[in-house]
């Protein structure tokens, strides 16, 4: 009886483990494919801005997208961001952000992912971070935050530089 159980266990392992291994490889391939698609669409989004292609840029954002810019007053829904951006795109010169480092996080079988990136921009190195959602088979930016990076040794200097502006803004925001 023990021999039959051992043989049975051995045969089960012979067939089960390769199938499990194939499933793990398939899952890893799906995750890599998803990340590649996300990176491709983020690159296309940045490229559309660099080419001042309004339609392509905003087609890579969801209808309920939010864009948070570097200024503390820049927290726009999609329509507000389009209105702010339109003159830049219409002039033929929007902005050019090139990813120099990027991390993408994704949970298998979900329709959302999040990312962070360091960008080479006209403002020097900036950090972008956001959320992407899969809509109709295409990954789109739903939430994006752009930040100017400041080396730690320059924080005191920058804090002084922006102090007056921020004190006034804090006062206005608290009064509302």
UniProtKB/TrEMBL annotation:
<dbReference type="InterPro" id="IPR032710">
    <property type="entry name" value="NTF2-like_dom_sf"/>
</dbReference>
<protein>
    <submittedName>
        <fullName>Nuclear transport factor 2 family protein</fullName>
    </submittedName>
</protein>
<feature type="domain" description="SnoaL-like">
    <location>
        <begin position="42"/>
        <end position="151"/>
    </location>
</feature>
<dbReference type="Pfam" id="PF13474">
    <property type="entry name" value="SnoaL_3"/>
</dbReference>
<dbReference type="InterPro" id="IPR037401">
    <property type="entry name" value="SnoaL-like"/>
</dbReference>
<feature type="signal peptide">
    <location>
        <begin position="1"/>
        <end position="22"/>
    </location>
</feature>
<keyword id="KW-0732">Signal</keyword>
